[in-house]
Amino acid sequence: EVKKKKKNSFKSVWPSTVNIHNRKDPRNLALNNQPSSWSFQLDGVLHHVSQEEVYARVGRRAVLGALEGYNGTVMCFGQTGAGKTYTMTGSTESYKQRGIIPRALQEVFQQVEKRCEYTFSVHLSYLEIYNETLVDLLSSPRGSSDPPARGMVVMEEPGRGVFIRGLTLHPVHSEGEALNLLFEGEMNRIIGAHALNKNSSRSHCIFTVHIESRSRTLSDAKYVTSKLNLVDLAGSERLGKTGSAGQGLKEAMYINKSLSFLEQAILALADRRRDHVPFRQTKLTYALKDALGGNCNTVLVANIYGEAAQIEETLSTLRFGSRMKRVQTHPTVNEHIDPAQIKKLEKEVQMLKEELSIYHGLVSRQAVRPSNVYEPLSDAQVAEIQSQVRRYLNGTSKEISIISIRQLQEVFAQFKLQAAKVKAQLCQTYNLVEKKQNARSAGVKVIME
Length: 449
Known about the structure:
The chain folds into 3 domains: 1-48, no CATH class; 49-337, 3-Layer(aba) Sandwich (Kinesin); 371-448. 43% of the residues lie in helices and 21% in strands. It has 12 helices and 16 strands. Strands 5, 6, 7, 10, 13, 14, 15 and 16 form an 8-stranded mixed β-sheet that branches. A 4-stranded antiparallel β-sheet has the order 1-2-3-4, with helices on one face. InterPro entries: Kinesin-like_fam, Kinesin_motor_CS, Kinesin_motor_dom, Kinesin_motor_dom_sf, P-loop_NTPase.
């Protein structure tokens, strides 16, 4: 049983069903003809559980998938004051009360330390959508003298998917650096107060962890990227309950409008007969296009009240969750090819072809076992090559006998060594001549004086 208040009850049958019963009031005849019981099929119910268990059940799978190259999204949806921000970021009062985002950052860097066979680069971004305006929460603090980032646009490219042009990406190398950026972004968020929540989020926020990994052991040109979106949606509001007015009323209208379009997009995605999905109606739905119906592992957390007074909003949230459950995504590993690495490998292949050509020439010219061509040289063989090189340079020999790749390498090494000796001798001779000339010049000066 989830929660009981007067006039209604909520029951959960783990892991898939939520049953709601609204007790009828015999004094209110107008409402007695309306349904009083509802049942919703979901993937699970979390009630009276720790933040640690919430992360384990909701967020951990998406985080581990992101480290393997799969895009992931964890999104909180529900009415204002239902606990979405607490679920995502947690409370600063206690370390145990930290939410999904801090725990996800901890998990990412713990896994990076464990996976020694890969090199990882991690970047963070923090986007706010306020009154249909894109705001970079990590660009500059509100109220500072720095101008805000302009020209931010939601864009889409083949092979890259949806991204925000102009949104800053910040490299991080530890959990501490990542948490500092998270707290900086939280300080820049817009919040307000109303009857249901004294710290109500007045905007939608998308905290994204960008991950790139490359193999340390394989010399191929492939690398893997992924995005982990952690989304705190602003809560839907019934103006009669929140009492919003002025700027708060304007914000509530934008919030409700964008959430309404989000529901329309979900309805279209859940209906397989629909060919068109209206993603571009708002910046929120366009920014979440991949997360809602594309290349992504997506988890929706539906935050609800248990009070009878909020039953209409609770039903609306659960309907949204059951529709979202019918949406199918198609996650795949985001594998890419590095052009610079391809050029490097092509150069190595060309060098190996040339070496193989020399090998075949040596084997065909003399009766040499193939295994001997690459065997290391003995001290006696090195001494013999040194003698041959000296005779060749002195003019007493016209050729040097080479029957293996190792001998060829040693011949060039000896040439390089002899060149260095000649250079040193020339420098020494030049210095002696220069000293004599300087001494003579000094002697002439003394005589002239």
